[in-house]
Design goal:
elongated, about 230 residues, mainly alpha
């Protein structure tokens, strides 16, 4: 009998770590910067002040995204490490109980008890901690937390997203700036939503609509607040 060949497949879950951070960062960059510019423009600020506001929003937002992603994902990583340390101790202290626990998981998934016991025994002989991490704790190499990767992806994608409404602000005529920034930002959000849905294997129209709707709502509310408070001041 010929040796078994390993069939390599590429799944969309392999992209989950960087895709989530990148999409979130770019979306936030477009929405927050465009909303900030529109809110200040509705308040009657000068073109120079709008550019300054946009640049400040880009820098602050990118750093905020990086810090937030790093802290939150690092917390997840710390939790994973604590769970793995506890599981490692349990495996050292009581291997038979851990084997029964693993076998029970496979029985719950549909295997016969005898076969589940054999599978648990063989997997634990190969990599006991890896088997329990994957099947008991739900921790795998694909889905494990990567704080630095998430932070860098979020910061870079935020800066790229924020650069678009900022560039439109710099180039658009002052009397039509609100229209240009709104239109370009909504078009970019629709494109981003469609691309993210395509990469993730979801419906592109639904992805585009979802992102565009919430972006338009954020911009409209911020512009309204700017108009009200700008008029009051």
């Amino acid at each position: 009998m010929r040796g078994l060949r390993r069939h390599t497949e590429h799944h969309r879950t392999d992209r989950i770590g960087w895709l989530r951070a990148a999409v979130l960062g770019a979306n936030d960059g477009i929405v927050s910067t465009a909303s900030l510019v529109l809110g200040v423009a509705a308040a009657g600020a000068s073109h120079g002040n709008l550019l300054l506001t946009g640049v400040a929003g880009l820098v602050a937002g990118a750093m905020s995204m990086a810090a937030g992603e790093y802290v939150s994902v690092h917390s997840q990583a710390d939790t994973e490490k604590a769970d793995l340390a506890r599981e490692r101790t349990e495996l050292e202290q009581n291997p038979p109980a851990e084997r029964r626990e693993l076998a029970a998981i496979y029985v719950a998934r549909g295997l016969e008890p005898d076969l589940a016991g054999q599978v648990a025994t063989q997997l634990m002989a190969h990599d006991a901690l890896g088997a329990h991490a994957r099947d008991e704790l739900g921790i795998s190499a694909t889905l494990s937390a990567r704080p630095i990767q998430a932070a860098l992806a979020s910061a870079a994608s935020f800066a790229v997203g924020a650069a678009l409404p900022l560039a439109v602000t710099a180039l658009a005529p002052e009397q039509a700036l609100i229209t240009w920034v709104s239109g370009a930002s909504l078009a970019s959000l629709a494109f981003l939503g469609a691309i993210a849905a395509r990469v993730g294997g979801a419906n592109m129209l639904i992805g585009a609509w979802r992102v565009t709707f919430w972006g338009a709502l954020a911009m409209a509310i911020t512009a309204g607040v700017g108009a009200v408070f700008g008029g009051a001041v």
